[in-house]
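Entry 14. Structure prediction run on the chain below.
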Amino acid sequence: MPTKTISVRIDGELVTAQEGQSILEAARANGKQIPTLCYLKGLSAVGACRVCIVELAGTDRLLPACTTPIQEGMSIKTTSAKLTLYRQMAVELLLVERNHICSACVSNSHCELQALAQSLGLTHVRYSYNNPRVPVDMTHPRFVLDHNRCILCTRCVRVCAEVEGANVWEVASRGIYSRIVSDLREDWGQTRNCTGCGKCVQACPTGALAEKGFSVHEMVKQSDGVTRLALQRAHQAGSPSR
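Output returned:
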């Protein structure tokens, strides 16, 4: 059945969208860029980072663009002083929750969190750092998990489950104690389900998941490759791309 075409306004411009799209998908299809961190095309959308919030006429709530379906007649604002302020706050809270020391990170200058902070004009953080004592898992023969860099975007969880089908990763605990864990808190190197494919590493937007052997500034992620694989899998399964 053909997809229904609908009309919406994005930043005052009347554009067309496809029924079933999210606000984020409709905006990007019409050349409107909305910042994201947890979103990766081809994977399910979860709205975890709240960076893609937009304003919708008729409501005071700020809505996550990646999980809000587009509807006929919507009037959406993707950029404003209010949105910039709230996006800055979201990124600042991500930075203070863990120990993000860019100068000692393998993904320095190749990090989506770092790039987003720079694009939002963040030169300092207004909140106190939590400075949690979190471990670094180096038990895998090829990869390393550094919880200091993790922003709990769950890209690794979703790509492992939805593309590789191994279901190695999950989020354990709650609040500031939340951690990405492998196979019920086993060391990554001891898990029986990991195939060593590296998709989780490439999907990670920061230096939390990295390949061993890279020094500071050297780890460049290939998330586009993950997206291609995810879309191919969705096409083969006969499901619509995200």
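Residues 81-97 form the longest helix (17 residues).
Filed with the rest of this week's runs.
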